[in-house]
Amino acid sequence: MLRPTWRTRDLRVLLIGICFLLAWIGIGYRLFRVQVVEAATFEADGNDQRIRYEEIAAKRGTIYDRDYIELAVSVDLPSVIADPSLIIDPEETARILAPLVGGSVAGIAERLDRPESRFAYAARHITIEQEQQVQAEIDALAECRGEDEPGECSYALDGIYLRNEPLRVYPSGDLAAQVLGLVQQDDQTGLEGLEAQYNEVLTGSPGTKVLERDPAGIPIPLGELLIEPAVAGVDMRTTIDREIQFAAQQAAADAIVQTGAEAATIVVITPRTGEILAMASAPTFDPNERGSIGDAIEQGALRNRAATDVYEPGSTLKVATVAAALNEGIVTPQDSWWVPAAYEVDGKEEPYTDVKREEGRHMSVAEILTKSSNVGTIQIQEKLGNDLHHQYLEAFGLGQLTSESVPGEVPGLLRPVADWVSATAGASTAIGYRVDVTALQMAAVFGTIANNGIWVEPHLVSELIHPDGSRDITVPRQRPVISEATAQQMRELLQGVVEQGTGRRAAIEGYAVGGKTGTTEKFLPEQGAYSEEDRIASFIGIAPIDDPEIVVAVMLDSPHGELEEDGTIVELQFGGVSAAPVFARVAEAALQALGVAPDGQ
Q: Of 41, 90, 321, 510, which sits 20 to 30 A from 547 (CA to CA)?
C-alpha cells in the first residue's frame, strides 16, 4: 500500500491550523486569567473607574446668642472639584476655569497636574454666578457629545465637577470672636473658642453617597446610587447678649485708645444665674477675615483674656478678706483702730504702706475698704488668720476653674496654706498679691456678694439643642460662701467706695452702684520681677447695688498717661481713674439693655 505524500498546500493548511490552535489556547488562557484568576482585581479596577464614593458633609451646629440670634452658622457654597486622573491637559483645563472662578491659570494647573490623584480642588467656595458659568461650560460639553452628528468636542473639562460645601460664617463679624473662636477651613474642625471646646457635638456625623459615573464623570442612568444621610451637629444657645457684648467690646477698644493700655478685658455676668452676658477682649479679630489671622495671633487677639490671662488682683481682692472677717464675726463695719502710715511685718524688708497717706489715724472697717487701705486690710487679715483666710479664698473660687463651658480657662494660682510664709504671705495675699486670678474668677467673687453670699458657676452655654429637638440645659453649680447678712453689709461698704472713696468715677446717673478699685504692679515672668512702669488697673462693680442684676469686671493691662480733672493731674495707671469709667459705661449700657429701671422708678 502506498503512503500518502504531503503536498505543499497540505503543509500550509496544517501550519495555519496549528497557529489557530495556539491562538485559541492563548486566548483561552488569557480569558481564564481574566475571568477566574484575576477576576477580583479587574472587578476592583472597574469599580474604581465607575463608582465614586462622595462624603456628604454634616451641617455643623449653629451657635446662637441668648435670644436665638445666629453668632456662627454654616452655609453651603459651591466648589469646583476635579479628578486629576481623568484630566488630559491640566493647563488647558486651567485656562478655561481661571476666568470663570477668578483664580490664576498657573495655580489651578498645579493643583490639577497630579495624574496619580483622584481628588483636587480647582476652586473653593465660589459665588453662585461663578457656579452658573462653570455649569454652563460642563453642560455645553455634554450637549456636544449628545448630538447625532457631534462635531469636535472639547475634552478639557473631563473630570471637573461642582458640589456644595459648608463654609462657617460669623454674621456679626468680630462680635464675641474670642468666645466663639473659629474653624479650620478645609474640614470645619474647631480651632479656638467654643468651636474647639464643643467641636465633637457641633460637628455631627458625615454621610456617604455611592454612585456610578462614566469615564467623563457623567452619572450613568440607572447606575448604582446609594445614600447614607449625614446627621447634623448639635445647635448651641449661649448666654451672650449681643447688645451688651457690643457695648463691652466698644468700651474695651476705646479704653485702649484713651489710656494707651496694651490690652483691655471686660466681663459681665448675671449674679443670680451665673450667665456670662459679655466677655470682651481688645485687641480682637474677625474670624471671617482669614487673611488677617496671622496678625491677630501675633497681637494675642485670639486669646479670651478674661479666662486665659492671670494677674494679681490687688485691692479688688480686699473684699474677700473683709467679707471673711465680717462673716466670722471677727470685726464689724463700725469697728475702728489705729492704722499707722507704715506697717512692718517680720520677714519683709520694707514696710507696707498706703498710697498717698503719710500719717497714721483711726479708721473703721468701712473706711479701710472705702479708702482702700493696705495697712488696715493687713490688720484685718491678722485677726482672721491664714487658715480661715485661705478657706474663704478657696470658697470664693480662687485657684480653680470656674466653669467647664469656658474655652481655654486657666485655674490661676492659690498656693496651699502650708506653703504660705507665716508672716508675709497672708499680708500680701490680703491686699491682692501672691495670688494669680482671672477676670472671670474675680467677677464670680463679686457675683457671690451680689447674690446674697451664694457662689454660682459662671457659664457660657445655656443649652445644647439636638437635631431631634431634645435639649441639654445647663444647671450651674452653686455653693454658699458667706451669709446673706454679710453679703448685705459688703454691698453697703462697696457702695461707699463709689460714693465716698476711690471709685467715684464708677458712679452711674440714676442708679446706685458699688464696687472696688484695684491697682497692682505688673509682674514680668520673663524677668522674674515687677515692672517699674507698668500697672494692672481694674474695677469690679455691682449694679444696682440694692437689687443686683449685673456684675461688671474691667481689667486694663498697662495703662499710661494722665489727665486733668478740676485742676488736678491724675494718673491713668490707677484703677479708679482708668478702669472705673469703663465700668460705668458698660454697666449703664447693660442695665438699659436688660430693661432695668433707674432707682425709684
A: 321
pLDDT digits (tens, 9 = 90+) for 483-508: 999 999 999 999 999 999 999 999 99
- Domain(s) labelled CATH 3.40.710.10 in the chain stretch across 242-593
Instruction: Report pLDDT digits (tens) over 358-405.
Output: 889 999 999 999 999 999 999 999 999 999 999 999 999 999 999 988
Longest dimension (CA), the chain: 156
In the block, residue with C-alpha cell 457675683? 447
pLDDT for 221 beyond 70: no
**Is the CB of residue 519 less than 8 Å from the CB of residue 560?**
no
Round the average pLDDT of the chain to a whole number and report it. Answer: 87
The bridge status of strand 235-238 relative to strand 63-64 is parallel
What value does the CA radius of gyration of the chain take, rounded to a whole number of Å?
Answer: 36
b/e map 34-64, b = 16+ CB within 10 Å: eeeeeeeeeeeeeeeeeebeeeebbbbbbbb
Residue found under cell 466681663: 267
Q: What is the rounded CA–CA span in Å between residue 587 and residue 227?
A: 53
Stretch(es) of the chain classified as CATH 3.90.1310.10: 52-210
Contact 346, 423 (CB under 8 A): yes
- Three-point CA angle 260, 353, 496, nearest 5°: 70
pLDDT tens, residue by residue, 236-291: 999 999 999 999 999 999 999 999 999 999 999 999 999 999 999 999 999 999 88
| N-to-C CA span, the chain | 143
Separation CA 9–CA 16 (nearest Å): 11
Q: Where are the beta strands (DSSP E) in 69-206?
A: 70-82, 120-123, 160-169
Contact 412, 435 (CB under 8 A): yes
**Alpha-carbon span 112 to 86, nearest angstrom:** 10
pTM of the model: 0.83
CA torsion, ordered 416, 417, 423, 428, to nearest 10 deg: 60
pLDDT bucket at 596, cuts 50 / 70 / 90 = very high
The domain 52-210 having CATH identifier 3.90.1310.10: the answer here is: yes
Q: Is the peptide bond before 544 cis (omega within 30 degrees of 0)?
A: yes
Residue position matching grid coordinates 425709684: 600
Name the pLDDT band for 95 (thresholds 50, 70, 90). confident
pLDDT digits (tens, 9 = 90+) for 154-206: 666 777 878 777 889 999 999 999 999 999 887 889 999 999 999 999 998 87
Dihedral-angle region of residue 138 (phi above 0 means left; psi in -120 to 50 means alpha; beta otherwise) = alpha
Cis peptide before 78 (omega within 30 of 0): no
* Cα 171 from Cα 159, distance rounded (Å): 35
How much is the pLDDT for 2?
A: 55
Q: Per the structure block, which three cell numbers stand in for 224?
A: 448604582
Q: So what CATH class is 242-593?
A: alpha beta
CB atoms inside a 10 Å sphere around CB 494: 28
Per the CB < 8 A criterion, the answer to whether 467 and 232 are in contact is yes
CA distance 113 to 223: 29
At 287-340, the pLDDT tens digits run 999 888 888 888 899 999 999 999 999 999 999 999 999 999 999 999 999 999
Looking at the chain, how many residues does it have?
601
